[in-house]
Amino acid sequence: MKSSIFIPYLLRDGAILQRNQKNHFWGYTGSEQEVTLSYEEILLKTKSDEKGYFDIILPAHEVSESIHFKISTADAEIFLKDICFGDVFLLGGQSNMQLWMERLKTRYPDEIERAKNPWIRYFEVPQEPSFDNSKTELTSGQWKRAIAEDLKNLSGIGYFFAKEKYEEDQVPVGIICTAVGGSPINAWLNQEVLRELNLLPDYYTELKNTDYHEKLKKSDERYQENYQKLFEMNDIGVEENWQNSEFNDEDWSRVYLNKSWPQHYQNPGSVWLRKQFNVPTHLIGKKALLNLGTMIDADETFVNGQKVGGIDYQYPPRIYEIENLSEVLTIAIRLKIYQLQGGVTQTKEHIISTEGEIINLDDSEGWKIKRASYFPERKAQYFPQYEPTGLFNGMISPLSKLKISGIFWYQGESDSHEYSSYGMKFSKLIQEWREIFNNQKLLFIFVQLPNCNEKFGGKNWAELREEQTKALDLNYTGMVVSIGDGESDDLHPTNKKVISEKIYQCYKQINNGHIWGYCSGPHATRVDQVGNNLFVSFQTYGKKLKLRNHIFFEISRNGRIEKLSNVELLGNQIKIILPDGLELIGSDITYNWSNDPQVLITDDDGRAAAPFKLKIS
To answer: Can you tell me the distance from the alpha carbon of 598 to that of 551, in angstroms, rounded to the nearest whole number?
Structure first.
């Protein structure tokens, strides 16, 4: 009987393998078959085991483009095209690492259209959690080039990093994406680590039972389906066609999208907003974009009675196309609120843009508003991929035979409610992933959480940032300080190019010898009291400290937070002048200790200093 050859998806056409290292090249065929791999002038042979598995070690190869591989047995052969040797990076974390180029097109409007580099490639690991065992292979996947339409689904951080790196060294870049939106850190840790930390939940053994997941999934699907069905049925605005241009809204109340609303319009249920206005004559007939910012939670948006778009959860910006601006425009928004506090984000732009002109929708006329239904708060949806160990087993373990240059990580938003154990778990994750890839010096660069208002998800972020900083105790780590790069009113800031540039800076600095925990900006190391002065010492990596106006530190005394703002800059130290007789040794001092801080200390390149909490010596 003829045997076939199976090559893992990670190694198929267009794959990028790590340059200058020996690489595994494995697959499956018939039992105990001789397997030959040839490419260029290289010929390698091995024999499959009883189960048909084979693994060939490729010799280290310098940078190379478009090599063709041939794999053959006595009765089968397979050809792989366009294999490159370059630098391979793994992206991990949650939605801010995952955030794809299509979501960033308003900030970088020409980037997708201009992308023409076939040597930047990416592989999206399928989101398939596993609990009964650690997977050895992926069930699907394809290497894609970061060109035009294919670029739309690539992580913005991953793309901008790869683009900058390629422009500098002309080495092909492979990006392997594993980030999963909303995922907590426990999902990325293995069973042994969580057991060691006494963090395996009581129900963990049940997670290994497929029926358990199916039961939970079906129960949740029934609930969500019934909730939505009843929600739709109870909306009087749908029944009476409140979206129509001719609908009479004279008796409706008035609100403004850029100002707070009365509480009863923010409660769960359906709320409708309407606005009718005349379009300037010279814009009539033009195409336009309607930008309404973000909303909590879902929307359906209509222009002149026709639906132009709708999004069923809160985070994406509402940017909808209007094919033809009419003389009189009627915009109707059906806002579906599922949480206890809904509405339209006040601080975002609410505009129509066309041919360089803007129609401001936050004018003095405001918007008409009417409540269409009240409804109970919706229960959170069940996601099996958020359960402990699932993503480690299903998405990381199958990658273990790969050789890679580094790991980039952006995660923590989903763990801020239990921040106290995060630092311990995060350090264990770094160590465990290095073991998985059999490289204790593997670069691990992570993004510290940026600034974000509590209303938009930034709760306990000061504490979580401090926990993240503990990972710098491990060598070959780098931390990107993103204070000032966030958006106070958005969990998903869009300036990912800035973040990627800082990741690239960390990558180069660690490769150049800063292996003892590198930080993208000044990093406070200790605070000492000498007489009536405190001295805050910083590691600045060869840069100079810079202070902005109104800099202050905080201490907690007698149950009160006191600000210390009488400061002087002394080289790489900041001197804080205290009132006479104030003894603070043993107290904690903090800097930028809030969810949504501003940049107050930088280096002379403008890189923000990391927030900190230190005990005074």
So the answer is: 10
213: helix, strand or coil: helix
Tell which residue, 517, 417, 485, has the closest CA to residue 185: 417
Q: In the chain, what's the furthest Cα-to-Cα distance?
A: 91
**pLDDT at 2 (0 to 100):** 62
Cβ–Cβ under 8 Å, residues 144 and 57:
no
pLDDT, position 560: 84
Contacts 24+ apart (CB under 8 A), 301-306: 301/331, 301/332, 301/333, 301/334, 302/243, 302/330, 302/331, 302/332, 302/333, 302/334, 303/329, 303/330, 303/331, 304/245, 304/329, 304/330, 305/241, 305/243, 305/244, 305/245, 305/330, 305/332
What pLDDT is recorded for position 1? 45
How many angstroms separate the CA atoms of 370 and 244, rounded?
15
Residues 6+ apart with CB under 8 A from 533: 575, 576, 577, 578
Q: Tens of pLDDT along 340-395?
A: 899 999 999 999 999 889 999 999 999 999 999 999 999 999 999 999 999 999 99
Q: What is the dihedral of CA 352, 358, 362, 363, to 10 degrees?
A: -120
CA dist 24 and 17 (Å) reads: 9
Report residues of the chain scoring pLDDT below 70. 1-2
| Closest by CA position to 299, among listed 283, 286, 315 | 315
Q: Which residues of 170-182 are buried (b: 16+ CB within 10 A; e: fewer)?
A: ebbbbbbbbbbbe
Q: One-letter amino acid identity for 448?
A: Q
For 353, how many CA atoms within 13 A lie in the half-sphere containing its CB? 10
Residue pair 444/430 in contact by the 8 Å Cβ criterion = yes
Closest to 39 in 3D by CA, of 18, 69, 19: 69
Q: Give backbone dihedrals phi and psi of 19, rounded to 5 degrees, phi first.
A: -70, 160
62 and 85 Cβ atoms separated by less than 8 Å: yes
Residue 297: asked if its preceding bond is cis (omega within 30°), the reply is yes
- Specify the pLDDT at position 582: 84
CA 192 – CA 175 distance, rounded (Å):
28
Burial class (CB in 10 A: 0-12, 13-18, 19+), 583: exposed
**Cα 84 off chain centre by:** 27
Sheet order of strands, 269-278 included: 253-255, 367-374, 269-278, 328-337, 298-303, 306-311
CA neighbor of 184 nearest in space, from 391, 382, 381: 391
Rounded Cα–Cα distance for residues 290 and 391 (Å): 38
* Phi, psi of 374, deg, nearest 5: -110, 145
Q: Give the contacts of 89 (CB within 8 A, at least 6 positions apart).
A: 158, 161, 162, 173, 174, 175, 176, 404, 405, 406, 407, 408
